[in-house]
Amino acid sequence: MNQDEEKLLRSVALQNAQAVLLARERAERALLAANEALERRSSELAEQREFFRVTLASIGDAVLTTDTEARITFLNPVAETMTGWKLEDAVGQPLEKVFNIINVQSREPAQNPVTRVLREGVVVGLANHPALIALDGRETPIDDSAAPIRSASGNISGVVMVFHDVTKQRQAEFQLRASNQELSEVRDNLEKRVQERTAELAAANEDLRQLSARLLYVQDEERRRLARELHDSIGQLLAAIGMNIGIVRSQSDQLDARGARAVSENAQLVEQVSREIRTISHLLHPPLLEIAGLASALRWYIDGFSERSKIKVDIEIPEDFERLPNETELAIFRIVQECLTNIHRHSESETAAVFISQESSRLIVQVEDHGKGMPKEKQRELTESNRSGVGFGGMRERVRQLGGTLEVKSQATGTTVRAILKVGMND
């Protein structure tokens, strides 16, 4: 090898050595940079772990975590207190050993939610109000949920469970249930008492209705008896007195002027009393009602009423109006009689009208006037069964016995009383 070749070889070797040294320096610098980055990452991860540890330790609820084998990886202080396990003793233990829960009602082991979280990857709540049995045997009602821990790639790497003591809540729920039960019993007792009182009131009302019906019947019978007594007894006595006065009057030429005048006046008075008694008798129990029927009896009564009261009363009743049961005709006659009496006493109306019509099985009786009407307070009283007057109460009771309704409408231009009865013709 000549001198030039030797120099060339040395030059090539030197260059190769320099390249190797340069590559080594670059590799060392890259390794140093990677180590520094790794240290920084490790420090960051350590800081994050410490942050999460402090955060979990600061949470007011109990927190524990497991790996994918359902073994304990972490307990915060609250979880340590509730389970009775220290973190260093619990790590690596099966979840069921540390987190021992039972069903409060059955006292059987409760289903562990971590198994379902690992299997389905969903958030699972604790069911059936479980209780946690601590290491020392303490029993604590708990509630809350378990959720999967996922890696950046989305894979499940463990489970985090958060739970808390619900003793006060359960006590409040128990007290609430007890209060609700007590309230339910009080309500049931009250409803029972209300039903009893309602039944008693219904029975009393039925007794009152029966008494009212009986009183109306007795009243009608008494009117019938009085009418018969007036007609048969007093009427006959007046007739006898009239005949005796007639005899005396035939001999008035034997009396002085004063005596003759007295006999004549007595004859006129007896005739007037006879007419009045006959009218009273007919008003108490009109004979036409039984003999000729409702239509004739009403026309006779209205004619007499108009003559006595000076109130013009029109009556509209179908020409083919058929006979009704006796009690129905009497009830309608009394209703019209009471309405016209009220018009005469209170309305100051100069006119009135009576309308009677038939619609299938309904019979409508309407009496109206054109007077001053009645106050709203009075109308309200008439709609209340315990505050209406005797006359209106009697009308309502008669209508009720016939299965009907009674309406009163009044304003400043007059009052209308409308009775709707359910009747069968020719019963």
Write up what this structure looks like:
The chain has helices spanning 3-58, 77-83, 87-90, 95-98, 113-120, 167-250, 257-284, 287-291, 294-309, 326-347, 376-383, 390-401; strands at 62-66, 72-75, 100-103, 124-125, 130-133, 139-150, 156-165, 312-316, 351-359, 362-369, 405-411, 414-422. It folds into 3 domains: 59-165, PAS domain (Beta-Lactamase, 2-Layer Sandwich); 168-285; 287-427, Heat Shock Protein 90 (2-Layer Sandwich), CATH 3.30.565. Helix 9 (294-309) runs parallel beside helix 10 and helix 10 (326-347) runs antiparallel to helix 12 (390-401). The longest helix has 84 residues, at 167-250. The protein is of the alpha+beta class and 427 residues long. The termini are far apart. 59% of the residues lie in helices and 19% in strands. The strands form 2 sheets. Strands 1, 2, 3, 4, 5, 6 and 7 form a 7-stranded antiparallel β-sheet that branches.
Summarize the structure.
This protein has 427 residues and is α+β, with helices and mostly antiparallel strands.
CATH architecture of the largest domain: 2-Layer Sandwich
Mean pLDDT: 80
- What does the largest sheet look like? 7 strands, antiparallel
* Cα-atom radius of gyration: 55 Å
Shape: rod-shaped
Question: CATH topology of the largest domain, which one?
Answer: Heat Shock Protein 90
Distance between the termini: 158 Å
Q: Please estimate the helix content.
A: 55-70%
Share in β-strands? 15-25%
Low-confidence parts: none
What structural class do the secondary elements suggest? alpha+beta
Number of strands: 12
- The CATH homologous superfamily of the largest domain: Histidine kinase-like ATPase, C-terminal domain
Order of helices and strands: HEEHHHEHEEEEHHHHEHEEHHEE
What is the number of helices?
12
Total discrete domains? 3
